[in-house]
Structures are given as structure tokens and as C-alpha cells.
Write a structure and sequence with these properties.
With 190 residues, the protein is α+β, with helices and mostly antiparallel strands. It has 5 helices and 12 strands. The chain is globular.
């Protein structure tokens, strides 16, 4: 029996997740990536989750930090993904990427390149209609829509404090950004 590189990565990933609680782990471009979870990151996920969950039509559910393999070298764990409720009810640790209808990531200092540069292409390639990037480092949300073979064709950047309405296949979803945390050092980075 031959063990593939993907099987080896998944085996290593499982061991690391058990050894380092409090870290988010993903496979990105064939490498295992670990990021510590920061308070603003978790608080943003919680607030956006609550806002989106109450607006979802029946038959849809939110998941967070579960694996979605895109190919042998990219397995993402989105901060928030919307998938069919019947799939979510299976309570698995990994789901096919084609199930995602809507996805959101929260930027941390370690994930800037992945969230802004790598993931949009992969998410668009699967036809995920809407990708939101919540950025507590800059105090903004980037919304991407209209997926195409080369990425998303539509993109807007909205400062926190403005309500964001996303016209998605799930219906109109409005995210109030005024209460999302902003890193106190964000102003000095702008």
C-alpha cells in the first residue's frame, strides 16, 4: 500500500491539531499552516455568525473551522461557511468544498496573504457566490462576488461602521459592522 503526500499531510494535521489547542490549522499550497486564535478574531466570528445565522433561509446552516479540501495541497478551514443543513447535521470534520454557498474569513496578521490573495481564487473556482473578508486590522470588510475562472469579478471595500448588504443566492444578508472589533493598532497601519 502506498501512502500519498495528501494522506501524510492529513495524518500530520490531525496530530498537530491535538497537540496545539487554540491554533487554527489548514493545508495551504502543500504546507501545514498553524495560526494562534486571537480575541478579535474570535469575537468577529461570533458577531458575524449571530447576524448571518438569524437571516439564513431554512435548509442552510453555518459551520466554522471544519476542513474543506480543494485539492491535494489546499484544505481550508473557513471561519464561517454556509452549507446545506442536512450536510451539517452529519457533524463531520471535513466536507466537500462544492457544498459551500457563502464563505467569510477573518484576517489575522498571519493570514493576510492567504485571505486576500490565495483563497479568493480557490473559492471562486468552486463557484462560491459570495466571499467576505472581515479585517479587524484595517477596520474594513471586503466583499467579493460574481465568481469566474480567474477569481471574483466584483469587489468592494467597506469601512466598519457601515451596514453591508450582500445579495446572495441565499437572499439578501445584511451585516452590521459597527460593533465589530478593530485592532487598536489599525490606525497606525493605514
Amino acid at each position: 500500500m502506498t501512502v500519498s503526500n495528501a494522506d501524510r499531510l492529513h495524518s500530520q494535521l490531525s496530530r498537530l491539531e491535538d497537540m496545539f489547542p487554540g491554533y487554527l490549522t489548514e493545508i495551504v499550497e502543500g504546507s501545514i499552516v498553524m495560526n494562534p486564535v486571537r480575541p478579535f478574531h474570535g469575537k468577529t466570528i461570533q458577531r458575524v455568525w449571530a447576524i448571518v445565522e438569524e437571516q439564513l433561509p431554512s435548509g442552510w446552516a453555518l459551520v466554522s473551522d471544519v476542513a474543506f479540501p480543494f485539492d491535494d495541497t489546499n484544505e481550508f478551514c473557513p471561519d464561517i461557511a454556509v452549507i446545506p443543513a442536512e450536510e451539517e447535521a452529519e457533524n463531520r470534520s471535513a466536507y466537500p468544498a462544492d457544498l459551500i454557498e457563502f464563505v467569510a474569513e477573518v484576517v489575522s496578521p498571519e493570514s493576510i496573504r492567504r485571505d486576500y490573495e490565495l483563497k479568493p481564487g480557490w473559492y471562486a473556482s468552486r463557484g462560491i457566490a459570495n466571499y467576505l473578508i472581515f479585517d479587524p486590522l484595517k477596520g474594513q470588510v471586503v466583499t467579493m462576488w460574481n465568481p469566474g475562472p480567474d477569481g471574483y469579478l466584483g469587489r468592494d471595500t467597506i469601512p466598519y461602521g457601515t451596514d453591508l448588504t450582500v445579495d446572495s443566492p441565499l437572499g439578501k444578508l445584511t451585516v452590521t459592522t459597527g460593533r465589530l472589533p478593530v485592532d487598536p493598532k489599525a490606525r497606525s497601519r493605514s
